[in-house]
Amino acid sequence: MLEFIMIAVAHSACPWGTDALGVVVEVDVHAGLPGFSIVGLPDNVVKESRERIRSAIINSGLEFPPRRITVNLAPADRKKEGGVFDLPICIAVLCALGVVLQERISGLMFIGELGLDGGVRPVRGAISAAFLAGKLGFRGVVCPETNAEEAALSGVRVWPVRDIKEIVRYLRTSLPHPYRVCPPLAETGENSPPDLADITGQDLPKRALEIAAAGSHNILFLGPPGAGKSMLAKRLPSILPPLSQEEFLECTRIYSAAGRLGKSPSGTSRPFRSPHHTISDAGLIGGGSIPAPGEVTLSHNGVLFLDELPEFRRSALESLRQPLEEGNITISRANGSLSFPARFQLIGAMNPCPCGFLGHPSRECRCTPTQLSRYRSRISGPLLDRIDLHVWVDPVDASQVLSRKSASASSATRLRVEKARAVQEERGCLNAYIPEQKIEKICRIDAGGRKLLVQAMKTWSLSMRGFKRVMKVARSIADLDGSADVHSDHLAEALQYRPELAKTLS
What we know:
It is a single chain. By secondary structure, the protein is of the alpha/beta class. It folds into 2 domains: 166 residues, Ribosomal Protein S5, domain 2; 310 residues, Rossmann fold. It is built from 23 helices and 18 strands. A 5-stranded parallel sheet has the order 11-14-17-10-18. α8 packs across α21 and α21 packs across α22. The protein is elongated, with a radius of gyration of 28 Å. It starts with 6 loop residues before the first strand and ends with a helix.
C-alpha cells in the first residue's frame, strides 16, 4: 500500500524568450473524489498532460490510486505552455504517492515530455533550462536523452533518461555519473556554403561583399534578373569567420527555444536565413501569445537574406529598423514583453524596376513612370539609409563566361576578412557597430579625406546616418588594406556604394 505525502515539490523550467522561466511544481494528493487538476495559468497542452501522466505511470508498471490530485505551477501569474512539465509533474506525483523520496528530488531540475508508454521525449529550450539550473545552484538537470548533449553545453551536470522506469530506479537507488561530454567546437563539413569561385566575373560586387563581411555591414544588390544577385548573397557565409564559443552558445539557445536545434548542436557555421517574401510580420520579427523568435532572431550572429526586397510587406520591412540599429527586438504582449537578440547582417536583392531591365545594357525597360514610382515606394528611405553598401550588379558578358578564367576562392577572401576583423576586435567591436561617440576616434580621416567627405555630403545630400555609415565602411576598407588611418582613397571607394541606388532609379 502506498504511503501518501500531503505535498511534494519538484523544480522545472519552460522557455521564456531565449531564456528560461523557473517553475516550482507543487502536488497535493489527498483522499476524496478522484480527480486531477492543474492550476497556475496552464495552456491546453499543459492541461492535457494529466492524461499523458496517468497513462505513463500505469504503463510503467507503477500504481496510480484513485485520489484527488492538485498540481500548482508557480509563479501563478505567468502563462505556462508546452509539454516540458510532463516529467516534473509526474515525478512530483510519484513523490506525493510515496514512490520516491522528496529529498532525492530536491536540488534537481526536471524537464521532458511523456509518451503514453512512459517514454521521455525531447523538449524545446533544454540548454536555457540548464543555464538557469546552474545559475540557481541546482545539483543538475534530469532531461530527455535527446537533449543531453545540448544541455551539457551549459556546464552543469546532466542526467539523461529514456523513460519513467529508468528515472524511478535512479531516484530509488543512486544517480549514475552525469553526462558531461561537450562536443568540440569545430566547423561541420555538412551543408557548407557555396564558394565564390563559382561566380564568373562580378569583380566589383565581390569586392563589396568582402567589405561587407569585413565590417559586418548591410548590403543591397541591384540589377536585372539573372545577373547573379542571389548567387553573390548566398556566398557571404563562406567568407565569414566561424562562430566564437560565446556566439555558438547564443545561437544554440535561440534555436533550442525555437525548437529548430535537432538532435545535437549544429556546427560553427554562421546562420543564414532566407525567408520567402510572403512571410508575415510576426514570422519575420517574432510573435505569438508567448512571443517566439522570428527570422531576425534566428539569423542572430549570421546573415538575413531578403530576396526580391520590394515584394515583402512594407510593414514587415519597416519592423527591421529597430533591430538594425539596436541589435535586438522587443515584442510586447498583454502578459509582458520579451526582448530577443537580433544582431544580424542584412543582405537585400532587388530588380531596379518591375520588369527588371531598367539600366540593362542591351534590353529596354517597359515600365511606366507610375509603375516605377509605385515600385520605389515599397521600400522607405529610412530603411535604405540603414543599408551601408548599394551595389549594382551587371549581367556577365558572354566572353567572360567562355574564357573560363579562374575566380578567387572563398578561402582566400576569408583570410583577409578574418585579419581585418581581428584588428576590429582589438578595438572592441566590429566597424558596423562602432558607437557614435567613438566614430571620430576610431575612423581617423586625413585632410584630403575630410575635404572629399564634405564635398560628397553637399553633392549627394547625405543624412547624418549616411555620413556615419560611410565613415564606418571606409574604416573597413582601411582595415582590409592594413592602414591605421582612413585615407581619401578609402573614402572614395566607400562613397561609390552610397549613391548607386539613386543613380540607378533616377
